[in-house]
Design a protein that fits this description.
seven-stranded parallel sheet, 10 helices, binds NADP nicotinamide-adenine-dinucleotide phosphate
């Protein structure tokens, strides 16, 4: 059985990834769905067509208790993971000095530590030909004030993806970082986004982002930025010094 393991599969982009895999990677017949809300994972599992199986794993992957759950499941079932999608992530908009320690550290624990831990745990179950997709963001292109911790975590995700992709090339495993702009998911409410700059940005549908990302992963692209506007923004952020970009990208 060829398995896709998707974190953050209880909402938003993670749900759309499952649907996009069904459409564009028919060879995947087993779905490992990971998030804290098990009932949401079971609802998604219920819509899988005949011949596809689901394993719903309730785990908080921001901490070692969640990693232990995943580790035990992997050791017991020994899956052939053809696709790992690290999608779980959280953001928060606030001045760093006005935000509480728990909120800021939780972003690092999930977006950075959790993503790293899941990749480390799952990699031994991936063979040549397998793929990894990491959910980064346009926030990774340069520091975003009031989202300083979030944009720093996503810079990590993009750096990690690029470096790991080269390390794993010899093993025949590719790594794709997806860098979406705003998507109307639960994320925006949880992140408490209130920003005129942000409101002016084009919003992308999570469905389109998921389909584009799966196609990019199939082609083994290292970075996929959905939408012409954000592709242009990525180029601008590469050319201009960060001392200028940090002002232009103020939220
Ligand atoms: N929406 C945007 O505007 C946007 C833009 C660029 C990038 N992104 C990135 O895209 C990814 C998906 O975002 P989204 O918009 O789909 O967000 P979302 O709708 O809020 O979904 C987040 C997912 O992460 C899971 N999650 C949160 N904390 C977790 C934890 N401690 N352990 C395990 N799972 C956890 C949630 O499930 P439970 O709550 O059930 O655990 C949920 O399934 C994130 O990495 C985000 O940073 C989002």
């Amino acid at each position: 059985m060829r398995t896709a393991l998707i974190t953050g599969a209880s909402a938003g982009l993670g749900v759309e990834f499952v649907k996009a895999i069904l459409q564009h990677m028919p060879e995947i017949d087993s779905f490992w769905l990971v998030a804290r809300r098990k009932e949401r994972l079971e609802e998604l599992a219920a819509i899988l067509p005949d011949g596809k199986t689901a394993n719903c794993i309730a785990a908080d992957i921001s901490c070692s208790a969640g990693w232990d759950v995943l580790k035990a499941e992997l050791a017991e079932k020994n899956p052939d993971v053809a696709l790992l999608i690290n999608c779980a992530g959280v953001g928060r908009m606030d001045n760093f000095a006005d935000s509480d320690l728990e909120t800021q550290v939780n972003m690092v624990n999930l977006n950075v530590t959790g993503l790293t831990a899941v990749t480390s745990l799952v990699l031994p179950y991936m063979k040549s030909g397998a793929r990894i997709v990491n959910a980064s963001s346009i926030a990774s292109f340069c520091p975003n004030t009031k989202m300083t911790v979030y944009s720093s975590t996503k810079a990590y995700v993009s750096f990690f993806s690029r470096g790991l992709g080269l390390e794993l090339k010899a093993r025949g495993i590719s790594v794709t970082a997806v860098c979406p702009g705003p998507m109307d998911t639960e994320f925006l409410g949880i992140a408490a986004i209130k920003s005129k700059t942000f409101d002016m940005l084009p919003h992308t549908s999570p469905e389109k982002v998921a389909v584009g990302t799966i196609k990019a992963a199939v082609r083994r692209k290292a970075v996929y930025t959905p939408g012409a506007f954000f592709k242009f923004y990525r180029v601008v952020a590469k050319i201009l010094p960060q001392s200028i970009m940090v002002h232009m990208a103020k939220t």
